[in-house]
């Protein structure tokens, strides 16, 4: 049985950054008539007692979730992770980037089932690629990430290098469901995944 219940896990959506490859804010891109970040927030709400959005973008206030601003602005996803984990009041935190709107509930359930206290981080891999921004992070990672940011290390994978990790390998439709979009072309692929 999972050690995590709804009241002891926080959902975190990383929605800051430049979205330079997309050309417009990824969190606000409409997917099935709903902003991508909002769609993800609704999915997280099924599993998490509280959902917060890590972003300094004023526009994200429209999403009507609690916003947590980066302490290290414009330093990339690691800064969003650091700020949100510092702010969170739970040890376990289910983290998603705002660009995986098709994520299947079963992926979230698998992460929760696998995160059993034997590692600080549990994240997924799909099609042979590890995805640090689809995972569960222990709150204690925040201090470590802050040290990295202070030393100008912004790469999430590198920052997590020394920390204990578990990886869940996704296959088939679950792997497809974590397709992220960075460009208008990617968005077309995400739309195709929706039809499957
Ligand atoms: N809070 C916060 N989130 C970020 C930041 N940079 C990126 N993110 C989020 O982290 C995830 C991955 O971001 P990337 O795709 O690597 O970067 P991006 O800035 O969104 O896009 P590009 O400019 O095209 O690289 C997305 O969900 C972003 O919204 C940041 O500085 N702060």
TrEMBL record:
Enzyme class: transferase
Binding positions for Mg(2+) per the UniProt entry: 99
Protein EC: 2.7.7.77
Residues in coiled coil: none
Major localisation: cytoplasm
Record domain MobA-like NTP transferase: where: 11-156
UniProt keyword list: Cytoplasm, GTP-binding, Magnesium, Metal-binding, Molybdenum cofactor biosynthesis, Nucleotide-binding, Nucleotidyltransferase, Transferase
Protein known as: Probable molybdenum cofactor guanylyltransferase
UniProt family annotation: Belongs to the MobA family.
UniProt GO molecular function: GTP binding; metal ion binding; molybdenum cofactor guanylyltransferase activity
Organism this protein belongs to: Aureibacter tunicatorum
């Amino acid at each position: 049985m999972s050690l995590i219940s709804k009241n002891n896990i926080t959902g975190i959506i990383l929605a800051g950054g430049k979205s330079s490859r997309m050309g417009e804010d990824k969190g606000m891109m409409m997917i099935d008539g709903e902003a991508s970040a909002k769609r993800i927030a609704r999915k997280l709400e099924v599993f998490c007692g509280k959902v917060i959005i890590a972003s300094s973008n004023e526009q994200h206030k429209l999403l009507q979730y609690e916003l947590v601003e980066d302490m290290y602005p414009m330093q990339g996803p690691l800064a969003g992770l650091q700020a949100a984990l510092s702010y969170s009041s739970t040890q376990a935190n289910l983290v998603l980037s705002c660009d995986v709107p098709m994520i299947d509930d079963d992926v979230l359930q698998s992460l929760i089932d696998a995160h059993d206290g034997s590692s600080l981080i549990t994240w997924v891999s799909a099609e042979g690629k590890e995805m640090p921004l689809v995972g569960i992070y222990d709150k204690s990672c925040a201090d470590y990430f802050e040290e990295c940011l202070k030393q100008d290390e912004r790469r999430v994978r590198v920052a997590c290098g020394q920390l204990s990790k578990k990886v869940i390998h996704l296959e088939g439709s679950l792997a497809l469901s974590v397709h992220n979009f960075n460009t208008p072309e990617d968005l077309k692929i995400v739309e195709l995944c929706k039809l499957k």
